[in-house]
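Researcher: I'm preparing a figure for a lab meeting and need a structural model of a single chain. I don't have an experimental structure, so a prediction will have to do for now. The sequence is pasted below. Please return the structure as tokens so I can convert it later.
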Amino acid sequence: MKKIIRLTESELIKLVKRVIRETKEVDEMFGFKKRKKDGDEHYIKVKTWQGNHDVKFISDKEPKEVNGVVTFHVDKIEDNRQVKDVRNFQVRYFGQNTAKAGNHQVDISDGEQSRLIDKYFGGTISRGNK
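Model: Understood. Here is the structure written out token by token.
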């Protein structure tokens, strides 16, 4: 059996605010976070890093491009499907098949190279200083 109820605008606003507040409380209580879409995470996949293959450097923040160099502030490193949190770790990408993590050079595969150029250089490479 359906029932029609009438609400004033102020009652509707209170109801909506209450639902939003209660949803936030439940999310905080159970540790739910907003699910990221594929494009929200910034990362670089490299062939090898410290003896491991197919490593992924992940950054939650938008990388910065200055003079043709894209700098990723890495938050996590994924290796063999295990994710490790890191701090103060930067990867600089120069628009070529290499990037630098600190003073270490890392190799990027051709497929990853194309993805990075499209995403961060708009399909064209501007050469920066190493």
